[in-house]
Amino acid sequence: MTISIASLCRLSGAAFIAFGCCPVLLAAEASDDEDTILEEVHVLGTWLPETRAAEGQQVSVDAEALRRSQPADPEQLLARLPGVSVSRAGGAGGVSEVFLRGAESNFTAVVVDGMRLNDPANTRGGAFDFSTLASSEIERIDIATGAMSAVYGPDAMAGVIRVETRFADAGEGWVDAELGTDHGWRAGASLGGAVGGTGVALRATREEAGDAVEGASLDLTTLAARLNGTLGAAIDWRLVLRAADRQRTSFPEVSGGPEYAVLRELETGDGQEFGGSLRVNTEHSDLWSSEWLASWSQIEDDIKTPAVAPGVLDGQPAFTSDTDYRRGELRWVNRLALGDANAPALALGLAFIDEDGSDDGVVDLGPVVLPNGWTLDRETLSAFAELGGRWGNGWTANVAVRGDHTEGDTKVSGKIGLGHDNVVGGQAWVRAANGFKLPSFFALGNPLYGNPDLEPETVRSIEAGWDRDINDTFSIGLALFASRYQDLVDFDFENFTNVNRGEIDIRGIELRGSWQISPDWRLDADLVNADIDSDDGPLRRRPETTGGLGLAWAPDGPWSLAASARYVGERLITSIPTGDVTDDTYWLLDGTLRYGSTDGWSAWAALDNALDEDWQDAPGFPAPGRRLRVGVELGF
What we know:
The structure is a single chain. The protein contains seven helices and 33 strands. The protein has helices spanning 5-21, 23-27, 63-69, 74-79, 149-152, 257-260, 441-445, and strands at residues 58-61, 84-88, 96-100, 108-112, 115-116, 138-145, 159-165, 173-180, 185-195, 198-208, 217-231, 235-250, 267-283, 288-305, 318-337, 345-359, 362-364, 369-371, 374-390, 395-406, 409-423, 426-437, 457-470, 474-492, 497-515, 521-534, 545-553, 559-568, 571-575, 579-583, 586-596, 601-608, 627-635. Helix content is 8%, strand content 55%. The protein has a single domain (5-635), classed as Beta Barrel (Maltoporin, Chain A). The protein is mostly beta strands.
């Protein structure tokens, strides 16, 4: 499967539009530094420098860790991280959901290379489809939990996942390939160069996920380009363009899967994603800098779901969902230092978001076919500010506020953080925030049960924690968290429509620790336990307890090892043939051995699910079994 000519034309058109919007930048003389790329700020949840904000626990996976572990897909990578649980019924062809500390998957904002890629037109209420992202594309991933609307606006109620993708540097390139015992394979390549003073890099990836689960398939092709440069000593800019084409098949999630499905027709999904982002950073003076971001994305998804026969629960009619969602954003952030490095800093900004979506699907009831289509659009104008700094005697404090105006209604989000550098030898912090999520286009516009009068869903969260490093050998961390999600969109069977009435309370504890056993060996551990209380009964597909160990061996030589043991607690799962089922706890053990040559090539062997555990993310869907993957990358 390849990206169509039409898709390539759209990608080229996006490049043309982006260049047309900034003729001054492209016509200007760039600096002699062809390799200059915008320095990324990896602290999430704040517009301020890390030293001037109290932001609590976050988790990051950098390029070095990704090269050691070589995850098979983004879901496997995320499932290994503290506070993250992943559900994907039907193997690689199923729809994946990523839960941060037990919150709904559509409460997490996902940003890839500056593009917000949540899809409010899909049936999952705005969750990101990670099947459109190849693991070999990822250069770095950062995750922060808690209400983030004061910084990121709508949708960031449970946290943010930010992904930066990988490109070859100027004058360099790489190709990679991998094969698995489940007949899955992947390949990719990137080439970097320069045109005048502008750095140019191209990337392509292609993968087929294999046949580990009956009926499941995934074919993914991506193309991407990055251009970057500087204008004198004060301005640098970066443009990223990306296109993805994904086709998948699986048994419908509620069908009972390969084991219990009475009707054997498969669900199919054909999706495309196009987008770009242009970021410009300007250093006006030692005390004032600004950032402009212009991003655009279009997500198309054509899903055909067959009927599911009745079982313990009522059957489900066949339906189609042919959605098209477009999002554009302009954002301007100014950062002002109010003195030296220890003085407070202020961030001020404006943003404008334009969205429109449509669905041309139908519901097939047998003797009658009902339209399932809708068309909606909305605009959001935002203003935000954040103040923070070090206030003497080891104290750090910051406060943020944001107003988002949508269709005559303004929602105000806030956040306050307080930290101290020396509490029992470590750093202590507390953070409180509120946030909201606009109703998805699907919940508002569906002609059968959509409700145009839905109100935004809301959250209030508080988190407190303590971290300590001991002799550069041990580090420990503790966080206590609580979030209350209200006005959740729920389906009212009596009136056959969506309404705001749900409420979820999540309270828990997260423990982290690491031990630098020797210069070559490192052991990481984590445990998260969350008590999830919902008005509508227990929530499905997410465990209340997760934890694990990560072992890394990285000597000063060509060999390295990464091993992960993850514990996943029991979960409530449901299908039409079986009704509610509780799936048992399980351990998932993975490991990767890698050899990296000084000549620029590397090879690896990865063993997934080494214990051959058989868990289920939905009744009747067996887990992918033990799998061996071998791969090679050639750099030049």
